[in-house]
Each structure stands twice: as C-alpha cells, then as structure tokens.
Design goal:
The chain is built from 17 helices and 21 strands. With about 475 residues, the protein is an alpha/beta fold. The protein has three domains: about 230 residues, TIM Barrel, CATH 3.20.20; about 80 residues, Beta Barrel (M1 Pyruvate Kinase, Domain 3), CATH 2.40.33; about 120 residues, Pyruvate Kinase, Chain: A, domain 1.
Length: about 475
C-alpha cells in the first residue's frame, strides 16, 4: 500500500537562543521543519557556523536534504540615544525635532544619524518610530533636520527603529554589514539568501552579482515601494517572502491581507516559491497553544497555496519552539485534507507557457488526475523542472530526483516537493528505474502501482525536459531501451 500523502506546505523555522543546539534542532526536524532560517540581525558568524554544521550533520545522518535560508539584516534606520538612557514620552500635538546632532536627546529632539533620510524628506512625510507606536508628521525640513508634529504619542527611547513609509529612500540595498554577511553565508554554503527592505529590481541584481550563483535569492516584500514594483522584482528574484511585520507598519494594516493573497497568486503563476511570514503563531512565544485567530491565519496562507509558512520568534526565542512547528504541521495537514483545498488549488492554476518542459509537467499532472497514479517523479538538474511541476500543484506526491546536492537542498522550500539525491544516469531506462526506487523508498508507491516519470534527453543537462512515461513501481514495464 502507498503511504499517506505527506504534507505539501513547507515549514521554515528560525533558529535562535531557544533552538540553536543539536537536540533542539533535531526536535524541530522531527516536528516537521523543512528549512531553517539563520537571522543575521542577531547571529554572530562563529555561532552561525556552528549551527550550520549541526544542520548538515543531521542532514547526512537522515539522508534528507535540508534547506538553509540566510536572512540579511538590511539597512536599519534608528534614532540616537537620550540623556541618562531614560527616553521621553511624546505627547500628541507637540513639536519634536530630528537632526544630525548626535549629542544625547531631550524631550524635544533626538539625533538621527542618517543624512540620506533628511535629503529625501519633504513636508507632509510620515515618520514611524518603534514599529509604528509613534507617528510624526514632517512640518518643515532641511538636509540636516526635520521639524515634526507628534500625531500619535508614546515613549521614545534609545535606538528605536524608524520607518519612512511614503518616501523612497536613497539607501544602498546592502549595508557594509550585509556585504560581509552575504560573502560569509555564501562561502558557508546556504541555499537561499533573503534580502531585506528591497525597494526595486536593482537591489536584487546587485546581490545577484555578488552571490555569483552560490545561493538562490529571495526578496522580502516589506516596503510599499516593493509592492508597487512587484512585477519588476518578480522578474529578477528567485522567490519572495511576504514579510508582514514591516509591511504592516509602513502600510495600513487592512491593506496587508489582500497584498498577501495577490503576491501568492503572482508567485504561483510564475512558479516561484513564496513564504508567508511574521507573527503567524506569535502567542506561542509564551504559550503552548496558539490563539484560534493565529490558526486561521496559518490556514488562510495554506488555502491560498503558499509554498511555505514561517516561524520567527516562536521557534527562535520562544518557550515552545518544537510545539509551534508541530502546530503548523497539524494545521497544514488538516487544511490539505479538506476537499475545499483541492478545489481551490485546482481553480487557481495558471496557464502554462508554450515550452516543451511546461507541456510535459502539465501533462504529468493531468495524467495523475485521470489515471490511478501514485506519484509524479521528475528528474531535474538545476531544479527548474521541479519548480514547473510544483507550480501545477499536483494532488499526488511529487518527487524530484537530482544529482546536485545544492538543488536538492533548495527544493526543500518548494511546495509538495520531496527531493532525493541520485548518482547521474546516462539512459532514460536508468532514470526511470531511479525514479521508481526513489518513490518506493519514500513509501509513495509499491508493486505494480503506476507512477509518472519525466526527464530530459540528453540527461543531466539543464533545460531539456522532453520525455514523460508511466512506469510501474516494481519496474516490471521498463524495457531495455535507452
């Protein structure tokens, strides 16, 4: 008998103080984590190297490709410090000045060491401080200061973050810290590199030149400018993350849900992975069970067809990291078992492109729906065939066989895809046998159950998918032809 279809939506777990030792990481894997996020906003290189080694050791022991996502901090805008470190409470209607003077702040002013912000500001612009808890409106400004009116008050204290939602900032996409972290992560051997505070396609292209093919790129969508330019960003990125934290600070909160749905649809049409992130099970930082609203939030992202859902503080610094992963796993399995899920996925498939590879992957999915097919197995070198196959969202298990370990690890993020490493083969017959073995080893098929195999001739060559064949799991109908 074929094993039950595994969970298709992937889970990304952020590692941190609560989960950075071998035992904790192993628990996260057992609970259902597929990809681990290394947050460079908090991680030191020495510690990141140690964690990376643990993940790769567990990967080797389990024979299971594990994805690693390195997340760059991005340019962080912060105010300066205050007298005695105490801070001050800003009242609605009062004036407050931001300037380049880095002497300790007072009740009426504070330094902001970012001349590029002052150069871009105009009267009427909004400044948000401390994740939007304080809102200032610029009354007048110059290249070294901004006189503001407090519209929403609250306590301001040392080094609080600043957001400028309605101004395109002339900031370099990668800070000096990001440049150092990028090279470190690529040399270490990560699979995905997330870029923070992307504003334009050029930000992605700059990173791509530096990465030089050592990792796949992910644009974090957390700025209004990124939303406005999403088409050009999607053209050049390999994937996106719907980073709802900063997005919800810089835009009205009611705008975030439709943006999330729109981004998922766009990524599915292009066959590019999309992660939904931030505060998905936030209450589980301190509680062993989530709120019903949080469960519904996770379920909504899964119903919409997101490739992955992500835990941040819940798994990095919370008291119940493995429980949070297990909760996501349970929600995903329940949603994916709902007949409505299958109907929604089928009803939102996009039209395939006019290529041999697209025609083959569409045909594989259609055959799996009209015949008794246990699984689809695609041979892929670069991963592009697997991305096409996953875009079709087949209801049967999807297995990707590759001889490239970097490809196998990257596919850990991809919806419904079970990647397996296999030595290169030179004949389609051997490719079919390898596919049958991979599907059988995973428990998706057995005996004379049928599977669909796709591959390209010549084999082990990127972009040549041109063959589809139905074979038996026991290889009884595989002849001796090449």
């Amino acid at each position: 008998m074929t094993a039950p279809t595994p969970r298709k939506t992937k889970i990304v777990a952020t590692l941190g103080p609560a989960s950075n030792d071998r035992a904790s990481i192993e628990k996260l894997l057992d609970a259902g984590a597929n990809v681990f996020r290394l947050n460079m906003s908090h991680g030191q290189h020495e510690n990141i190297t140690r964690i990376h080694g643990i993940i790769r050791a567990l990967e080797a022991e389990r024979g299971q490709p594990i994805g690693i996502l390195g997340d760059l901090q991005g340019p962080k805008l912060r105010c300066g410090s205050f007298e005695n470190g105490a801070g001050h409470v800003l009242e609605v209607g009062q004036s407050f000045r931001l300037d380049l003077d880095m002497t300790p702040g007072t009740a009426t002013r504070v330094g902001m060491p970012h001349p590029e912000i002052f150069q871009a500001l105009e009267p009427g612009a909004t400044l948000l401080i401390n994740d939007g808890a304080i809102r200032l409106k610029v009354q007048n400004c110059d290249e070294d200061h901004a006189e503001c009116l407090v519209e929403v008050g609250g306590k301001i204290s040392d080094r609080k973050g600043i957001n400028v939602p309605d101004v395109e900032l002339p900031l370099a996409a990668l800070s000096e810290k990001d440049l150092a972290d990028l090279e470190f992560l690529c040399e270490l051997g990560i699979d995905w590199l997330a870029l923070s505070f992307v504003q334009r396609a050029a930000d992605i292209m700059q990173a791509r030149e530096l990465v030089k093919g050592r990792a796949r790129l992910m644009a974090k969508i957390e700025k209004p400018n990124a939303v406005a330019r999403i088409d050009e960003i999607l053209d050049v990125t390999d994937s996106i993350m719907v980073a709802r934290g900063d997005l919800g600070v810089e835009m009205p909160v009611e705008a975030v849900p439709p943006i999330q749905k729109d981004l998922i649809v766009r990524c599915r049409q292009l066959g590019k992975p999309v992660i939904v992130a931030t505060q998905m099970l936030e209450s589980m930082v301190n509680a062993p069970v989530p709120t019903r609203a949080e469960v519904n939030d996770v379920a909504t992202a899964i119903y919409d067809g997101a490739d992955a859902v992500m835990l941040s503080a819940e798994s990095a610094a919370g008291s119940f990291p493995s429980e949070a992963v297990a909760t996501m796993d349970a929600v995903a399995r329940r949603v994916e078992a709902d007949p409505l899920y299958a109907r929604q996925i089928a009803g939102t498939r996009s039209e395939a492109q006019d290529t041999d590879a697209d025609a083959i992957t569409v045909a594989a999915r259609e055959i799996s729906e009209t015949r008794s097919i246990a699984a689809i197995c695609c041979h892929t070198q670069s991963g592009s065939t697997a991305f096409r196959a996953a875009r079709e969202r087949p209801l049967v298990p999807l297995v990707a066989v590759t001889s490239d370990v970097k490809t196998a690890r990257a596919l850990a993020l991809l919806w419904g895809t079970n990647a397996r490493l296999q030595d290169p083969v030179t004949r389609f017959r051997d490719a079919a046998i390898a596919a049958a073995k991979a599907v059988t080893d995973l428990g998706f098929a057995a005996g004379r159950e049928s599977i669909v195999v796709t591959a390209g001739v010549p084999l082990n060559t990127t972009g040549t998918t041109n063959i589809l064949r139905i074979v038996k799991a026991d290889c009884s109908n595989i002849g001796s032809a090449a």
